[in-house]
Amino acid sequence: MVTEAQVWDALAEIPDPEIPVISLVDLGVVRAVEVDERRVRVDFTPTFLGCPALEVMRDAMAERISSLGGEPEINVVMDDSWSTDRITPAGREKLRASGFAPPAPREAAAPTLVQLQTNAFRCPYCGSNETRLENIFGPTPCRSLRYCTSCRQPFEQFKTI
User: Fold this and answer.
1) In what helix (H) or strand (E) does residue 95 lie, and over which residues does it extend?
2) Fewer CB within 10 Å, N side or C side of the chain?
3) How far apart are CA 60 and CA 76, in angstroms?
4) What is the edge-to-edge ordering of all strands in the sheet holding 131-135?
């Protein structure tokens, strides 16, 4: 019989389809795991409602649970939105180490363009705050492109969601 700990460990090995340096667990999209005999229910919240990787994530989780001998029931939770605050500390470090600037902690108010244009974002390569917004639109809706004037490296910044 499969255990809850085995399921969590297995899900922690599934990389995010868009940013494979971080797992679905470290990204914070896996909300709950419930094991009842062979049935394994996983609740997860995608990073945003129109996430193109939704089916890929669901299929990867179901496949991993099946390989453990469980009967997967993958439930997409839409009544509580995901936020960047759900990224684990280990996930933030993995992002930084691979050249992504992790998101800043979320404030009570929504981010504004003025906040995105500040020098409050650290370069993941040299740690400098001397960065500037190059393009608010990155490769996915949750990322923007920044440039470090100290080490002259471009990098992606996770937007605080």
Assistant:
1) helix 89-97
2) N
3) 14
4) 100-101, 154-158, 143-148, 131-135
User: How far is residue 20 from each of residues 80, 108, 116, 146, measured CA to CA in Å?
Assistant: 24, 30, 25, 20
For 69, what's the count of Cα atoms within 13 Å in the CB-facing half-sphere? 8
Q: At what angle do helices 54-67 and 4-11 cross, to 10 degrees?
A: 140
According to DSSP, the β-strands at 154-158 and 100-101 are parallel
Beta-sheet pairing, 71-76 with 131-135: unpaired
Q: What local confidence, expressed as pLDDT, does residue 114 receive?
A: 44
Q: What would the pLDDT profile of 76-92 be if each residue is shown by its tens digit?
A: 998 777 888 899 999 99
The chain-wide mean pLDDT, for the chain, equals 87
Cβ(158)–Cβ(101) under 8 Å?
Answer: yes
Amino acid making up residue 25? V
Contact residues for 32 (Cβ-Cβ < 8 A; gap 6+): 41, 42, 43
Please give the sequence-ordered ranges of beta strands (E in DSSP) within 78-142, or none if there are none: 100-101, 131-135
Q: Is the pLDDT of residue 112 over 60?
A: no
Residue 5's identity, in one-letter code, is A
